[in-house]
Design a protein that fits this description.
single chain, 382 residues, alpha/beta, Alkaline Phosphatase, subunit A, Gyrase A, domain 2, seven-stranded mixed beta sheet, four-stranded antiparallel beta sheet, 13 helices, 20 strands, 29% helix
């Protein structure tokens, strides 16, 4: 079953819209409402903790009691595609990909004629950081620009000062950490300081382990139990009073197998129909097709990959509102190719870039399954 984002009511964009209102900014998308009240209708300080890769279904399967499960308030939809780049950009801007233009991990920038890994802001040609302003390639402003509430962003030490993080953090104070224990210590310190404040925090180790070992692997599930234990203890025993905590995720995960991994280098006839590598993510791929080879492209997919994916015209997905229901920004133009490969079941498409070592990953996201698209909304307040 394909799940489409609910940008009207219960998506991560609506959550971010509510946070934007809380800190004194506005969004063009509706605020998230639970019952008849905005999720951020509070005089307390507010913490948003994003646990990368923690899908709603996974949480319900694996965690049966404790503060996280007991305070599971709702099921939200992610954005399309449900992948870290598009989602984190939506949380920082309160807009979907049609407006901010970050459409996957691999993003083609037509202004430069290069394929990039957008969040680290490096080109796939040489993996070097791009010495240009990242703001020129993001179509929406951060909700943390000139916030009326004191704001802090807490992120891993290795990304807190990146170009992407620096821009999206706006005028908030940035704080780096190393490891789960250090994250909790940083949250305790920042939330205990005087005055009303908004704290955004991101934790990515669960996603990393899911990619490396699979989301159902013992090492991954053990780490999820550790997260539940450490965060649960923080909420029950160390959370300062007058703080509302919202915990969510960017996406869930599915595990591929060796039989369901589609390796790009195994399909040179497909590559020959394209003008550049497949962009996007492993579960949603954007294909830039040579005009003279469209029939060859469609026939190849039908004959060789129809068991693994659907192929849709990119413009159709835009018209249907997958990327957002408002008029796309100029930045969005050229970011989703001519056709989109939407992977079925647990299939994944792994691109290959010449000169790069192939990395086989087992846990994947970016597709439209329930596992990937539904994320938890956990609300806790002392």
């Amino acid at each position: 079953m394909s799940i489409r984002p609910d940008y009207e009511k219960q998506s991560l964009v609506n959550l971010s819209s509510a946070i934007a209102s809380y800190i004194g900014n506005q969004s063009s998308y509706p605020e998230l409402v639970i019952g008849d009240q905005s999720i951020t209708d509070t005089h307390s300080s507010l913490l948003l903790l994003v646990i990368d890769g923690l899908g709603y279904n996974c949480l319900r399967r694996q965690i049966h009691s404790g503060p996280l499960r007991d305070n599971l308030t709702a099921r939200l939809t992610s954005v399309f595609p449900p992948s870290t780049g598009p989602v984190i950009s939506s949380l920082f801007t309160a807009t979907p990909p049609a407006q901010h233009g970050i459409t996957g991990w691999y993003v083609y920038l037509k202004e430069l004629g290069v394929v990039t890994q957008f969040l680290p802001f490096v080109t796939m040609a040489n993996n070097h950081p791009m010495d240009i302003k990242i703001s020129d390639f993001i179509g929406s402003s951060s909700i943390l620009r000139a916030p009326r509430v004191k704001s802090v962003t807490v992120q891993p030490e290795d990304i807190v000062d990146s170009k992407y993080s620096s821009y999206m953090s706006g005028h908030s104070h940035r704080e780096g950490y190393e490891g789960l224990g250090d994250l909790i210590d940083s949250l305790s310190f920042e939330l205990s300081r005087k005055g009303k404040k908004f704290v955004y925090a991101y934790y990515g180790e669960l996603d990393h382990l899911s990619h490396k070992f699979g989301c159902e692997h013992e090492k991954t599930l053990n780490h999820l139990e550790l997260i539940d234990e450490k965060i649960g203890n923080f909420l029950e025993h160390n959370l300062p009073r007058d703080v509302r905590v919202i915990i969510t995720a960017d996406h869930g995960m599915v595990d591929a197998t060796r039989d369901t991994l589609i390796l790009g280098e195994d399909h040179p006839a497909l590559t020959d129909t394209l003008t550049m590598p497949v962009c996007g993510d492993t579960r949603t791929g954007y294909c830039y097709v040579r005009p003279s080879r469209v029939d060859n492209f469609l026939n190849y997919i039908d004959d060789n990959l129809s068991h693994a994916c659907y192929v849709r015209e990119s413009s159709e997905l835009v018209d249907e509102g997958w990327f957002g229901y408002k008029t796309p920004s100029p930045t969005f133009e050229g970011r989703i190719g001519d056709y989109v490969l939407m992977m079925k079941e647990n299939y994944a498409y792994l691109n290959h870039f010449p000169g790069r070592n192939r990395k086989i990953i087992l846990g994947h996201h970016g597709g439209v399954s329930e596992e990937e698209m539904y994320v938890p909304l956990i609300v806790f307040e002392r």
